[in-house]
Design goal:
- There is one protein chain.
- The longest helix is centred in the middle third of the chain and has 17 residues.
- The chain has 13 helices and 19 strands.
- By secondary structure, it is α+β, with helices and mostly antiparallel strands.
- Helix 1 crosses helix 11 and helix 3 packs across helix 4.
- Helices cover 29% and strands 27% of the residues.
- The chain has an 8-stranded antiparallel β-sheet, sandwiched between helices. Strands 3-2-1-4 form a 4-stranded parallel β-sheet, sandwiched between helices.
Length: 411
């Protein structure tokens, strides 16, 4: 499969999903030769890249061999949690631009992340690691006995809010279901049981930041939209501005920079999820070692005028000349993820007359007639709708009941 690279530098991209195609296309536009690894035979990136390998992005040694044989000068795991440690491993082995492998592993595994937060004095809920194959619902109830209720059970190595449950341990049947749900999304068999974090600010703070030379230069803090009828755990969009007060945003920014410094992170885009608890104390849900999914970088590029996808590619290739400085703004925009509340056949999307004029871009993943599943993880999104409003007040009014204004028809 190897090609003559000619004079072009080669970038190795880990993952060729629909959301990752934009990184492959951007790398080609910048003049790089693109090699993609993705074991899924139907992912579209293989048709866009110059060279494609049917290699799992979590198989470190196999990806390292590809990088060596293709003489890669940079490695990028764009918008992929599972592939981020592989990218760091390969880059360290070959002396290519990367953040420390240990730090990327901490950010990619929730149990290691919680340990790091505790060790370095960050606000953090009480938590316990759970061997998924050595417990049942009764044992889980025992482990949660001295924890503040409710508790949250989650896989330590999944992304996109997959496998997460909020639990009342008095319900034994729900514990068994939650264990099975978490196991189904866990690769390493390690789960995290932790206390639920109470909200001071009513929404999860989300979005992305971009680090250059160890300093957060790009502040893309937004807040997450949730579908409460589906439990409210999976984001169904992001809105800007976040709605944080100035004091709350200062506290969140300070915690993020302190975390970046504690991990010796030097460059790259990172996905943020923070709960601002009582007393305006920020609590990290995660700092993902990759660009956010649901096209968050595209949304933030719209807001800022800075092409974050290009920045990801350039920095991965050792080109840190691109200025990524952005201090946020109050432009009223949001994304919305059309999704199904039940399994069935996708029969299209209907936009209400009051929301339709505000849609400026739509990206669809499915076509009418495709099968859809109840939305319990980012991988079950139907598409992304981008909206722009005249002001924050108008945005908040129209986001109230957004699932009825962007109606998904399921047969």
């Amino acid at each position: 499969m190897q090609q003559d690279a000619g004079k072009k530098d080669t970038i190795l991209l880990l993952g060729g999903s629909r959301q990752q195609v934009v990184a492959i296309e951007t790398a080609k536009r910048l003049g790089y030769r693109t090699v993609v690894c993705d074991y899924l035979p139907d992912n579209p990136g293989q048709y866009v890249a110059d060279v494609a390998y049917s290699t799992s992005t979590t198989d470190r040694e196999a990806v390292l061999e590809v990088a060596r044989s293709e003489r890669a000068r940079g490695v990028l795991a764009y918008a992929s949690d599972p592939a981020a440690p592989t990218a760091a491993y390969v880059a360290e082995e070959l002396g290519l631009p990367t953040n420390p492998l240990h730090s990327v592993e901490v950010l990619s595994r929730k149990n290691l992340f919680r340990r790091h937060l505790h060790t370095h004095g960050f606000p953090c809920p009480a938590s316990r690691e759970v061997d998924a194959n050595a417990v049942d619902g009764a044992r889980l109830a025992q482990l949660a006995r001295d924890m503040r209720l409710p508790v949250v059970l989650k896989p330590t190595d999944s992304s996109g809010s997959k496998g997460i449950s909020v639990l009342d341990v008095a319900d034994a049947a729900s514990l068994d279901r939650a264990l099975e749900h978490a196991r189904s999304f866990s690769r390493n068999g390690i789960l995290e049981l932790e206390e639920y974090i109470s909200y001071g600010f009513p929404r999860v703070v989300g979005g992305d930041v971009f680090v250059a030379h160890g300093e957060v230069r790009f502040w893309g803090l937004m807040s997450c939209l949730r579908d409460e009828e589906l439990g409210g755990l999976v984001p169904v969009g992001e809105r800007n501005p976040s709605g944080l007060t100035a004091a709350q945003e200062r506290a969140v920014r300070s915690q993020i920079q302190d975390l970046v410094t504690s991990l010796d992170i030097q460059f790259g885009e990172f996905n943020v999820e923070v709960i601002v608890g009582p007393g305006d104390v920020p609590h990290f849900l995660e700092l993902g070692a990759r660009a956010g999914g649901n096209m968050i970088p595209v949304q933030l590029s719209d807001i800022s005028g800075i092409d974050l996808v290009e920045a990801n590619v350039r920095y991965a290739m050792g080109d840190d000349s691109m200025d990524v400085t952005f201090d946020g703004n109050r432009e009223a925009v949001c994304t919305y993820v059309p999704h199904a509340r039940r399994d069935g056949t996708f029969a299209g999307i209907e936009l209400s007359p009051d929301i339709e004029p505000h849609v400026y871009r739509t990206v669809m993943y499915l076509s009418e007639g495709d099968q859809v599943c109840r939305f319990d993880g980012a991988n079950k999104a139907i598409g992304i709708v981008f909206l722009r409003f005249d002001d924050v007040e108008q945005m908040e009014r129209l986001l109230d009941g957004i699932s009825e204004r962007v109606r998904v028809r399921v047969q």
